[in-house]
Amino acid sequence: MIRSLLSADPPGSRLLAASLLAVLVGLALAPFVFPGARSLDVAARVAVFVLLAASYDLLLGYTGIVSFAHTMFFGIGGYGIGIAAASWGSGWGSLAAGSLAALACSAAIAFAVGLLSLRVRAIFFAMITLAVAAFFQILASQMSWLTGGEDGLNFNLPSVLSPGTKLVAAPVLGIDLNGRVLSYYLVFGCALALFLVLLRIVNSPFGRVLLAIRENEFRAEALGYRTVVYRTVANCLGALAATCAGLLYALWLRYTGPATTLSFDIMIDILLMVVIGGMGTMYGAVLGATIFVLAESYLRDLLRLASDATHGVPLLPALLHPDRWLLWLGVLFVVCVYYFPHGIVGRLRARRP
Amino acid sequence: MPEPMLALSGVNTRIGQYHILQGVAFEVPRGGLTMLLGRNGAGKTTCLRTIMGLWRASAGSVRVEGRDTTRLPTPELARLGVAYVPENMGIFAGLTVRENMLLAARAGPPDEKRLEWVFGLFPALRKFWNALAGNLSGGQKQMLAVARAIIEPRRLLLVDEPTKGLAPAIVANMIEAFRELKRTDTTILVVEQNFQFATSLGDSVAVMDSGRIVHTGAMADLAADEGLQQRLLGLSLDAHQ
Amino acid sequence: MKPRFDWIPLALVALVAAAALPLVASAPIWLTLTVAGLAMGMMIFMMASGLTLVFGLMDVMNFAHGVFISIGAYAATSVLIALRGAMHADSLAANLAAMAPAAAAAIAVSGILGWLFERVVIRPVYGEHLKQILVTMGGLIVFEQLIKVVWGPDMIAVPRPQALSGSFILGQAAIERYRVLAVVVGLAVFAAMWLLLNRTRLGMLIRAGVENAEMVESLGYRIRRLFVGVFVAGSCLAGLGGTMWALYQESITAQMGMQVMVVIFIVVIIGGLGSVGGCFIGALLVGLLANYTGYLAPKLALGSNILLMVLVLMWRPRGLYPVGR
Ligand SMILES: Nc1ncnc2c1ncn2[C@@H]1O[C@H](COP(=O)(O)OP(=O)(O)OP(=O)(O)O)[C@@H](O)[C@H]1O
Ligand SMILES: [Mg+2]
After folding, report:
1. How many domains does chain C have?
2. Residue A263, SS3?
3. What is the CATH code of the structural domain delimited by A2-350?
């Protein structure tokens, strides 16, 4: 059963399996084990970013294409829900319509961009997607009548998802089962399901062709695979999954804006997650996103301690300043690219018992 | 016995996962012109590139005038006096003929006498001196490629198929040029498909097949022995006659 | 069979400028916009030219190129702040006497950083595009953070050169003084690059290397050294461009390099990857168009360069001046 859920692609290392299980259980029980608004928020972000990073891994790790437009698709998801909820009201119907519109829009853009530039070299694709993503960001901030501009959109969701709604009168295990908890499980459940779908995709015959193309494009071409078609399809699938992540994120935040979805900073975050976790492994996305979101939330506290401890030493306190956490992840990222091409997952699998 | 100009022994070269040269061994004696023959895909180009350091031999050794050059970077080899005319000629299309020649003359602008000598071999170059090299005809490009290699005196000349795609009249011109070159004290190693070119110029010969040397000897002996030609080179010669 | 120059892209610049005149409908405003556009183009060219040259010669696309722009801007600003007195004097000579060492500092710091960057970050990943993109991106993250460590995370105001602020009237058009300086410096840089590339042996070698690096090695030149030299020179130019850009924007942040990178990529793509001349023309086109649309249709201004890129690629898929390879 588990094997088939995982598409016959087991973690392949006890330690890895244990970490993944820890993440899964932690997320599944988050409202009960880590009570408090901040921890629940961290858990939801982990779930969303696992999905987002996994969808990026489909491109980067499995197809070997570097796209800098992934946040654009993430944003389209966010704005799909946001615009629908803000203009058509907060019913389920408008959310569904917004989601569908966002998915269609993403698929179309991914298809067009892919067809236009995937036949050229990786560098060119990376540059073009960077420009397209920047363009989209401009578009979102200029069309403020629709998107709320820089301020973004705050919106309401169906009342069953609002924190005020109590689903069960009495607390369960000391926790109020309110709309917030339900939202969380909606986000978590969808993210988990979509992650398993992505895992299935990369382990399907389609995924194997992608790998073959990544390894040796000429050979794959010679074997009769239309590489552009495969890459374009992968690009579209990655975009759709990213859009779903965007939908979930908007549901969770009840807000959509450039800073939470479209900004280049998030693009960099995704890159860090996938590479540090391990490109081309899918599970790397889980570890990478978890570590990253935890680092973002808690590494600062750790650095603050270190910074205070080194007080008086020249330069060190500045390097260990809580706001410099990205510096250390950046260094880790570069080290990973050079020495651990399969990131943490690769390391764990290498010391398989 | 005098030291050979160039000596390969047990050279193995891999390109990616393909094992192309599988123990190539032969010598190029000083002075004179050695032909390297073989069917298409035999590994001749790979062999020249390995000598030049453009591919790295995974085993075996390459020696130039007794010095082990197996691991020497390409520019250092060139500075030892080895010049290379690649199969695709390696012309800088965006530079003029003049600029191509000036670059090849490492020691500074070539002196008049040498330049006149080169113009004597390839008169077309004088005419198109200031033209973009990319606009030259195929034959003119080939001439420029050879001229570039000899603009300064060199110890060893590696030339890959100098007659590829040339009209018979131009081939004759090329043969004349190489005759003249043989009078200098440059040692020459030429890869060729044109058997007429090979027989009229070669002093000694090495024949490759499937990444190995299958025959070495005097060119005259091979030219005289049709059975041997047939066996070593097969149809690929007839196709080029 | 004289070497022939492709005039069409150059004519395109003139055409864009000419077409804008009736649309703007006021000659003085048009002149103001044109000077502004040229100045912006020149600054973009300075920042972008190193990137395209490095790509042409080494087949390396450095996504961290923006870091050299930021670092140059920060180094220059540090010097300018130290020489604040001279900047505030209402004398062109005094202003220039402060700006020259600032630019020199920027060039030096960016150059040294470029040299280190080539050795440490880029050298291990020659020929591997995917890793190149990732690793240079990583370099961008790390260096952006390091700038914050050294100079602090906040925006820094750049002292303004007193004699160069404000504008003068030419005919009826108001021309900002600083923009004239930018045009002059930009033209000087372009002319110097052009002379170097076309009139010197080193330039010949660089052009030859862009076409066929292997053959340059076979002729006995150590292309590695050429690589390093060009990379450092490209970083220096980015530092100079960063200085000019900082003075123009009047404030700097650690992210400024990354922000201009998008425009730089667009310019490099428009010009044809690896072509310095194309980069120059692309930069002018982008600068002019940004200013014209900024006046005519402000909403379009930010996106105008993307639209330009799409149009150019539809016309010439490999850019204005495609480079062989
Ligand atoms: N870059 C490369 N990658 C993979 N295989 C290569 C490469 N270059 C050459 N080969 C293979 O190596 C073998 C020898 O090639 P090489 O070019 O040395 O032959 P050649 O004797 O020069 O042939 P020709 O007479 O056609 O020029 C061929 O089978 C060729 O397919
Ligand atoms: Mg050959």
Report:
1. 1
2. coil
3. 1.10.3470
